[in-house]
Amino acid sequence: MFFLHCDRCNSTLRAGALDANDLDAETRTDLEAFHANHASCQLRMFAPTGRATANGPWHEPTTERWIEVLDRQGLAVAVGTRTSIDEPICWRIENLAFHEEIEIALDRELFWDGIERALRACQASQRQIASWANRVENYLRTVASSDCVVLYDDTRRPEQSAGCLTLTARTPLEASLRTFGFDAETVERLLALFNDDEFPPLRITRRVTTARCARPAPHRASERLDSPDPLV
């Protein structure tokens, strides 16, 4: 997938599907028509960087899509919108840059569900359990994104993903169990939770903001299908 943009007409074409690399017949027809309609215009090609966000679930037809793209002059954002499912997505190129903040937090619902199942019929001190859980949450505030593994995206919340710690990053949590005064049975049951590579469960939230970025004046060489500088 790539985008062609005409500066003079402020028109943008998305060429190719979001999940495909080869151009099908329909895409080639659209591409040729775009070139024909902008024969005397300067065209620029933008390729996705791999970063994207949306203001709702991606499968919803009217969700606004923001895809970070790159051309020879730097980064920009391709914005796709439509107000009705009866119309195609309209794309435009904005001179914006992504700024992404990542928040790593404990998935409390899954965490406590695991704790309760592990300690069922066990006479563990609730105060000690709460103290250790607080230790887990405080520890997660210190980890970096490189200490986490994204497992899958939340289809209802496009900015959130389920995740877990790397094996190295979660080692201090396992070691800390023996410092909270738990009896041997409680320690054994809680340690068994770490047999699951996805414990403790995380919620990874990405907050994307945009800022205007300065771009140099566009180069006047035309980028066309018959150009010696190929588009794809």
Overview of this protein structure:
- This protein is α+β, with helices and mostly antiparallel strands and 232 residues long.
- It is 25% helix and 33% strand.
- The protein has five helices and ten strands.
- A hairpin with an 8-residue loop joins strand 5 (74-81) and strand 6 (90-94).
Unreliable runs: 217-232
Structural class, by secondary structure, is alpha+beta
Strand count, sense and barrel status of the largest sheet are:
6 strands, antiparallel
The SSE string, one letter per element, is: EEHEEEEEHHEEHHE
How many individual β-strands? 10
The rounded distance between the terminal residues' Cα atoms is 9 Å
Shape, per Cα inertia axes: elongated
What's this entry about, in short?
With 232 residues, this protein is of the alpha+beta class. The protein has five helices and ten strands. It folds into two domains: 2-95, no CATH class; 102-207, no CATH class.
Topology:
Elements: E1 2-6, E2 11-15, H1 25-37, E3 43-54, E4 65-71, E5 74-81, E6 90-94, E7 96-106, H2 108-118, H3 126-140, E8 148-153, E9 160-165, H4 167-176, H5 184-193, E10 202-212
Antiparallel strand pairs: 1-2, 1-3, 3-4, 4-5, 5-6, 7-10, 8-9, 9-10
List keywords for this structure.
alpha+beta
